[in-house]
Automatic annotation (TrEMBL):
The keyword Kinase is assigned to this record: no
Name by which UniProt lists this protein: MFS transporter
Principal location class: membrane
Membrane topology: Multi-pass membrane protein
Alphabetic keyword roster: Cell membrane, Membrane, Transmembrane, Transmembrane helix, Transport
């Protein structure tokens, strides 16, 4: 557990830096363009390469030293940040360097994610999986809990360049912690005789498709990621319609306290049974609170609903994580997590690709003062800028609830922990 905690501290710091950059980029792009579509494109480019290359990263994680892959992924992802910094420092005003930079960073993160996931299994016993999953989520959620608050304060007195420098500095700390753990662990010699990458790719797919429970769970999580992608991308333009960047940063950080609460509860309680039931109830609750987030323009109510929404996510993620770990052998987990990443998080990719267009050209016009829904639904949830996005969140929450309810009755998922 000691070695896991060391790596976890490094990833926590790295997550805070990455979250600050993501927040600053979304603000920067929106201020330059005033377009929700451009914000969603930036999110898509920061995400798509990681997802598409995850299977390759998973194969490499099963063939080579996972700690070395984490170091390479963390270190070289800084190239994208340097690219953005140079163009902004040179006085270039435009979103193209941002799009290129976040894409470069995303390519190298594809090496990090599967190796990090598989390393958790390397370092821990099955009894610690749930506790470790809660801790991993605390680190991952720091980008929502701490980063927006810090980035919002920094942006109120300076610009995105300072945040990029801070993020680059966090990579040194992360690499140091990984190197320290690597020196204290005897590396397991892996079978390097099999050079058929395509065969290994098929084995990664088979580890998922051969288990009905795992394949059903992956499908459910893909839909969950799709709906969460909407709130992640559209919250910024919705709030900026009636508040400034500093208020948005504080609001997002306060809202993300829910994730900390949920993760801490999981870490303390160390859930050991009832994973499928907890998964479904938490997912239905997340759908309800997502819909409520879009139903009002009150910052205080949005914060409350967001706290409850984010508090439910760690339970969903932990239960899904543990169910997969206990069903797939360790020697295939790198490939399995690589495939699971691309299959589940393709939901984010689709959401990022379409939500901005739907917001700008379909839902927002319907709830402007002269829109077709202004005289009906507009009287309930309000009219004007940002209210079309609110309607999108309401509909997304309803559908998310229904999917969780339907999948909750699938025997294949309930039988996974037996």
């Amino acid at each position: 557990m000691k070695n896991f905690i060391t790596i976890w501290i490094g990833e926590l710091i790295s997550s805070i830096g990455s979250g600050m950059t993501a927040f600053a980029v979304s603000i920067y792009v929106y201020q330059l363009t005033g377009s929700a579509t451009m914000v969603s494109i930036a999110a898509l480019l920061a995400f798509l390469p990681t997802i598409l290359l995850s299977p390759i990263g998973g194969i490499l994680a099963d063939r080579y030293d996972r700690r070395i892959l984490m170091i390479i992924g963390d270190s070289f992802s800084a190239i994208g940040l340097i690219f953005i910094f140079i163009f902004i420092q040179a006085g270039y005003v435009g979103v193209l360097p941002v799009f290129i930079g976040v894409t470069i960073s995303s390519v190298f993160v594809s090496l990090l994610e599967p190796a990090y996931r598989a390393t958790v299994t390397d370092l821990l016993t099955e009894e610690d999986y749930a506790r470790a999953s809660g801790m991993v989520q605390i680190a991952a959620n720091a980008k929502y809990l701490i980063s927006p608050f810090l980035a919002g304060l920094i942006l109120s007195v300076t610009d995105i360049r300072v945040i990029l420098l801070i993020d680059m500095a966090t990579f040194f700390i992360t690499v140091f912690t990984i190197m320290k753990v690597r020196k204290s662990i005897k590396n397991v010699k892996k079978d390097m005789n099999n050079n058929d990458i395509f065969k290994e790719f098929k084995e990664g797919v088979s580890s998922i498709t051969s288990d009905k429970g795992v394949s059903s769970l992956v499908l459910l999580m893909a839909f969950m990621c799709f709906f969460i992608g909407f709130i992640q991308t559209l919250m910024t333009p919705m709030i900026l319609a009636f508040a400034d960047a500093s208020t948005l940063g504080i609001m997002e950080s306060v809202s993300a306290v829910g994730m900390l609460i949920g993760s801490v509860i999981i870490g303390v309680m160390n859930i050991k049974k009832g994973y499928s039931r907890i998964l479904m109830v938490s997912l239905m609750a997340a759908g309800i609170f997502m819909g409520l987030c879009g139903s009002t323009t009150s910052i205080w109510l949005i914060v409350v609903f967001c706290i409850l929404f984010f508090a439910s996510l760690p339970f969903v993620n932990t239960c899904a994580d543990v169910l997969v770990r206990i069903r797939i052998p360790n020697d295939k987990q790198g490939r399995a997590w690589g495939m699971i990443n691309i299959l589940t998080q393709i939901g984010f990719v689709v959401a990022y690709a379409i939500c901005g267009i739907l917001a700008d050209y379909v839902f927002e016009p319907m709830l402007m003062e002269n829109g077709i829904l202004a005289g009906s639904l507009g009287r309930i949830i309000g009219v004007g800028e940002g209210r079309g996005i609110g309607l999108m969140l309401i509909l997304s929450g309803i559908v998310m609830f229904l999917f969780a309810f339907i999948f909750g009755f699938r025997k294949s998922i309930r039988a996974m922990e037996q």
